[in-house]
């Protein structure tokens, strides 16, 4: 299964990538929202994992583009954010995300969530 990970914090991005690749997921990485959009135009993903606050385009803007443009519209979308207040979660879900995960989280917690999304575990 193919995953796009868009996270501007390099250390966190590498940790998530290593965790997912250890489970044999194919993962493309983007360091900002614009780079994520470039990947989304070239590939089809089963899951898109987005950081809320990224340079160039925010996670919300990327979600809106995915849902509006239709390419990858069937991909599941998970938003990662340190903004964990209920109104922020509601905003993310209203924009079109399927899942929300508050930072900080453990790599195993993220992996459990990804496995649940992609395999119904």
Automatic annotation (TrEMBL):
The modification 4-aspartylphosphate is found at residue 51. It comes from Mesobacillus foraminis. Signal peptide: none annotated. PROSITE patterns: RESPONSE_REGULATORY (PS50110). InterPro entries: Bact_response_regulator, CheY-like_superfamily, Sig_transdc_resp-reg_receiver. Pfam families: Response_reg. The lineage of its organism: Bacteria, Bacillati, Bacillota, Bacilli, Bacillales. One of its GO terms (biological process) is phosphorelay signal transduction system. Gene3D superfamilies: 3.40.50.2300. This is Response regulator receiver domain-containing protein. Keywords: Phosphoprotein. PANTHER family: RESPONSE REGULATORY DOMAIN-CONTAINING PROTEIN, STRESS RESPONSE REGULATOR PROTEIN 1.
